Amino acid sequence: MAKLPDTILTNIFTLKRGLIECIDDTTAIEFRLFEQIGETAETLPELEELQNIKERLLSSYSRLYNLLLRVYQSQPTASTDMLNLLYGAMESGRNSLDASVASLQDIQRNWN
């Protein structure tokens, strides 16, 4: 079984938690906007953006989950290519999370 250092695992699980919490925040904002104002010409771009944010976050979360499982199923060790994919997914997930948080803040400012 391939083993990753504890620091890498901690980073992955922290990132996955951030992604799932941001998915929750995105869903809550989408629900509030739809409930308070509805789907109008003014809200439609933000509602679509919220849907896109969720899809990106879900994709990042799923990719991390799948690659981590594949690394731990590798015998006797994970290949360099597999590890590079995992590290790339971590970086991409972090970038996606940071961009999503910024977009959510903008949307909230626009509608509060």
Can you give a write-up of this model?
- It contains 3 helices and no strands.
- Helix 1 packs parallel to helix 3 and helix 2 (44-73) runs antiparallel to helix 3.
- The chain starts with 5 loop residues before the first helix and ends with a helix.
- The longest helix is centred in the last third of the chain and has 32 residues, at 80-111.
- It has 112 residues and is mainly α.
In short:
The protein is an all-alpha fold. Helix content is 83%, strand content 0%. The protein has helices at 6-36, 44-73, 80-111.
List key phrases describing it.
112 residues, mainly alpha, elongated
Number of helices: 3
The radius of gyration is 17 Å
**Terminal Cα separation, in Å?**
50 Å
In terms of DSSP E residues, the strand content is under 5%
Instruction: Outline the biggest β-sheet.
Output: none
Computed structural class: mainly alpha
The rough form would be described as elongated
Number of distinct beta strands: 0
Q: Give the uncertain stretches in residue-range form.
A: none
Helix residue percentage: over 70%
Mean pLDDT: 94
Q: Strand-and-helix sequence, N→C?
A: HHH
Walk me through the topology:
Blueprint: H1 6-36, H2 44-73, H3 80-111
Helix pairs in contact: 1-2, 1-3, 2-3
